[in-house]
Amino acid sequence: MADVRMLSEEPDQRRVLRRAWPHLRPHRGPIAAAVAVNLLSTLALTLVPVLIGRAVDRLLDHDRDGLLGAAGAVLALVVARMLLLRASEVLLTRAGERVVHDLRDLVVQRLGSTPLRFLEAHRGGDLLQRSTVEVAELATFVRSQLPDLISLGGYLVFTTIVLVSSSWQLSALLFVVFAPPMWLLARVFRRAAGRAYPAEAAAQATVAATFAESLQAREQLQLDGATGRWLDRLRADADGYHAAARTAQRAATWIDGTWIVQGLTTAALLVGGGLLAGADVVTVGVVVTFVLASRDLFSSVDDFTLVAGELLESRTGLARLLDLLDATAPGRPAAEPPAPGSGLTAEGVGYAYRSGRPVLHDVTVHFGPGEHAGIAGETGSGKTTLAKLLCGLYSPDTGTVRLGGADLAALDPGELRRRLVLIPQQVHLVGGTLADNLALTPGRPGRDDFARAADRLGLTGWVAGLPGGFDADLGRRGERLSAGERQLVGLLRAAMIDPEVLLLDEATADLDPATAHRIEAALARLRADRTVLVIAHRQTTIDRLPRVVRLRAGRIAQEEPCR
Ligand SMILES: Nc1ncnc2c1ncn2[C@@H]1O[C@H](COP(=O)(O)OP(=O)(O)OP(=O)(O)O)[C@@H](O)[C@H]1O
User: Fold this and answer.
1) What residue ranges carry the coiled-coil annotation (predicted)?
2) Measured between alpha carbons, how far is 534 from 502 in angstroms, rounded to an integer?
3) Do 312 and 382 fall within a single domain?
4) What is the pTM for the complete model shown?
């Protein structure tokens, strides 16, 4: 079995920003502008305590004009800060939303074109969590926390510069009393949160996956009377999530220690500042500036630790999303499309769903252009698997499938889907009308195309018989149609795509004679100028086919002579 790159529950959290850079680069201009405006607004805020300190010194000097000037400057700074902050929030949210929007598009596009083997190897809930919940959380972070995070970072830098340039002695005192314990607390929090948050995200994904599975398997679970046991599993997953969430909560309590450090620092500043002012080393205004700025600094550090928690969570989500994007990145560049009309060939093809248990062995078979043939064999002999390999839905583990000489694995996926169409046993339909389902065909076909396809396949009467015609509501996932009727929808889609090779995996469910006849008649009309391969499950079909390739336990057993 060819290796599938499995996504880890614990994503690679190193160099997340560098890995995200290719997705940020197209938006670097708006991001840089938003960050610059945000930093300007932060600078305005940082200068307020300095001006208040100056105002206090003017007051003590009985300098009335100086006092009024400082007070006016404070007012102007506050207004400027408000306007700049608002502008930066709008700019940053706009730029961030664009990045998230593009990421969402990309993940949908990658999941749509990634090999089925990758999708089958992962739990649906996990992929759902990464491609929807993780993206939504990133969008929330960009809208609500990212502007704060940038302001806080800027505020810490600007305040440090202002304080050091006002008094190095008080700055040294502030640094010695405040920085080491805060650094220690931040380190402990980071270590605890670094483990707890990914574990919480993984446990949440497990609950989503089990829940999604229970919806898919609900009928079978009820039929088997296994609902109780399944509930036990759901409960165990929920307990796991609960425990992981509590650990994450405990990690967050380290942040409370910052209150004690803040109280100690204010006391130290008041005593140290008082002594320095008494010795005329600094003015009273500088002490006021320090006390005010340090209070702002504390609340910034508080906010920073809170936002840092959100940042770590969002970083985990972004890392999980980037892992998914890396794992689903397109492979080698597409090869030149082959000229039409050289037929379809499997050369020494082997395939295994699970390691060491191949279901196809060394299958070599050629179907010429315009040939009408069947693939038959007992249940489980590998007919459906061969059909999926012949239309490029799966890539073989060994050997090659070629269309007119070109390896299907190297063809552009769009080209592949236009030239080879497989109608499976169970055609999957989406909730909505017949027209909604027919519209899910390359080239954005409209009503006229639907009507032409129906006319070409002799299905106009069948469509007219549905309540509402093309507007007939097919129910959730098309459940109002039988397996055979779903295949008619598949044939209508195929008629619009007009592929070079059409593979039909006959529905195994019992078809009513009218539907069986409609499928046969539609296939006969579709045959002209194209290779049509039928995975034949019914003897009546086998009897009608001009050539039948028979599989036994994954090998070509015999070819029945042309009739
Ligand atoms: N998605 C899958 N994962 C694992 N094993 C699979 C999967 N699909 C098919 N198989 C196994 O591969 C083997 C071949 O299955 P396949 O569906 O190709 O046979 P088939 O001849 O089309 O059978 P049928 O006539 O019942 O449709 C079977 O043993 C089946 O259990």
Assistant:
1) none
2) 8
3) no
4) 0.60
CB 534 within 8 A of CB 375: yes
User: Cα(390) to centroid of ligand 1, in Å?
Assistant: 15
Which of 149, 162, 142 has the alpha carbon at shortest distance from 97?
A: 142
Question: Binning pLDDT at 50, 70 and 90, where does residue 363 land?
Answer: very high
Q: Is residue 461 part of a domain?
A: yes
Do 259 and 403 sit in the same domain of this protein? no
Residue 401 pLDDT more than 50?
yes
Q: Is the CB of 380 under 6 A from ligand 1?
A: yes
Distance 442 CA to ligand 1 centre (A): 29
Same domain, 128 and 235: yes
The preferred substitution site among 384, 425, 541 for testing ligand 1, maximizing ligand atoms within 8 Å of CB, is 384
Phi-psi sector, 400: left (phi>0), alpha (psi -120 to 50), beta: beta
Is the CB–ligand 1 distance for residue 289 below 6 Å?
Answer: no
Report the nearest atom of ligand 1 relative to the CA of 381: 21
For residue 502, what is the enclosing H or E element?
strand 501-505
| Model confidence at 562: pLDDT above 50 | no
Q: How far is the CA of 384 from the centre of ligand 1 (A)?
A: 7
Q: Is residue 83 in some structural domain?
A: no
Statement: residue 117 has pLDDT above 70: no
Q: Any alpha helices (H) in 279-359, and if so which ranges? A: 284-327
Q: Mark whether 192 and 163 lie in a shared domain.
A: yes
Strands (E), 369-445: 372-377, 398-403, 406-407, 420-423
Overall domain count for the chain = 2
φ, ψ (nearest 5 deg) of residue 233: -70, -40
Domain shared by 310 and 348, yes or no: no
Q: Is residue 108 part of a domain?
A: yes
pLDDT at 461: 92
Residue 426 — very low, low, confident or very high, per pLDDT cuts 50/70/90? confident
> Are residues 293 and 434 both part of a single domain?
no
Domain CATH code at residue 210: 1.20.1560.10
Kindly state if the Cβ of 379 falls inside 6 Å of ligand 1.
yes
Complex-level ipTM: 0.97
Classify residue 531: in a domain, yes or no: yes
Structural domain range at position 506: 344-560
- The pLDDT of residue 242: 94
Residue 551 CA: nearest ligand 1 atom is 21
Q: What is the pLDDT of residue 399?
A: 92
Same domain, 257 and 359: no
